[in-house]
Amino acid sequence: MLTLKVTDINQYVYCPRIPYFTYVQPLKPRPTPKMDFGKEAHTRLDKLEKRRTLAAYPELEAGERKFHTYIHSARLGLEGKLDLHLVHRGEIFPVEFKSTSRRPGLNHKYQLTAYAMLLEEQYRKPVRRGYFKLVNPLADGARPEKSEITLPVEITVPMRDFVKDVLRRIRAMVTQESLPSPKRPGNRCRDCEYRIYCLDLGDLAR
Ligand code: SF4
């Protein structure tokens, strides 16, 4: 079974062509200025978070924080490196850092769900909730607390089933070597690292 990365789930939901360009016709992504900016903000948040307490996470007054853990499941054929997870009174909570001025999209929620599924297998415990730590890269860097939100997300059974379905669909696409149709070309193409390769989209991808 082809081992996939958790980020493949995010990317497939964003646009199924991206995992095609990763596994079937490997192409080098071209980072956009927005992505470079977002990575800097993510690194800043990562450093800040290591100095903080758990006060931002509702109901978790104490607990252990584990940064940048590699997690893997042979059963799911899935692996990934998670920004942070919290261990509190026998419960486990994945945390994803996102640099964005918008609320997380479905692609981000399914990525968080996939991390929850990996943690469930590693700890042999159900994971009922995860968190997004959002930082607005456009906000005033002098007052970072004003630009950050901690957002809880319930991890449901349908979300887990959807993740398994995405894994099946990516593997089928790789086996069949079929170029998927773009998903709603437009804004998401403008911010995409692969847009120079989607020549069939013409002006929509520029
Ligand atoms: S440019 Fe658009 S269609 Fe092409 S991979 Fe990116 S999001 Fe998908």
Automatic annotation (TrEMBL):
<dbReference type="InterPro" id="IPR022765">
    <property type="entry name" value="Dna2/Cas4_DUF83"/>
</dbReference>
<keyword id="KW-0378">Hydrolase</keyword>
<comment type="similarity">
    <text>Belongs to the CRISPR-associated exonuclease Cas4 family.</text>
</comment>
<dbReference type="GO" id="GO:0046872">
    <property type="term" value="F:metal ion binding"/>
</dbReference>
<keyword id="KW-0464">Manganese</keyword>
<keyword id="KW-0540">Nuclease</keyword>
<dbReference type="InterPro" id="IPR011604">
    <property type="entry name" value="PDDEXK-like_dom_sf"/>
</dbReference>
<comment type="function">
    <text>CRISPR (clustered regularly interspaced short palindromic repeat) is an adaptive immune system that provides protection against mobile genetic elements (viruses, transposable elements and conjugative plasmids). CRISPR clusters contain sequences complementary to antecedent mobile elements and target invading nucleic acids. CRISPR clusters are transcribed and processed into CRISPR RNA (crRNA).</text>
</comment>
<feature type="domain" description="DUF83">
    <location>
        <begin position="6"/>
        <end position="199"/>
    </location>
</feature>
<dbReference type="InterPro" id="IPR051827">
    <property type="entry name" value="Cas4_exonuclease"/>
</dbReference>
<protein>
    <recommendedName>
        <fullName>CRISPR-associated exonuclease Cas4</fullName>
        <ecNumber>3.1.12.1</ecNumber>
    </recommendedName>
</protein>
<keyword id="KW-0051">Antiviral defense</keyword>
<dbReference type="InterPro" id="IPR013343">
    <property type="entry name" value="CRISPR-assoc_prot_Cas4"/>
</dbReference>
<keyword id="KW-0408">Iron</keyword>
<keyword id="KW-0479">Metal-binding</keyword>
<dbReference type="Pfam" id="PF01930">
    <property type="entry name" value="Cas_Cas4"/>
</dbReference>
<keyword id="KW-0269">Exonuclease</keyword>
<dbReference type="GO" id="GO:0051536">
    <property type="term" value="F:iron-sulfur cluster binding"/>
</dbReference>
<dbReference type="GO" id="GO:0051607">
    <property type="term" value="P:defense response to virus"/>
</dbReference>
<dbReference type="GO" id="GO:0004527">
    <property type="term" value="F:exonuclease activity"/>
</dbReference>
<keyword id="KW-0411">Iron-sulfur</keyword>
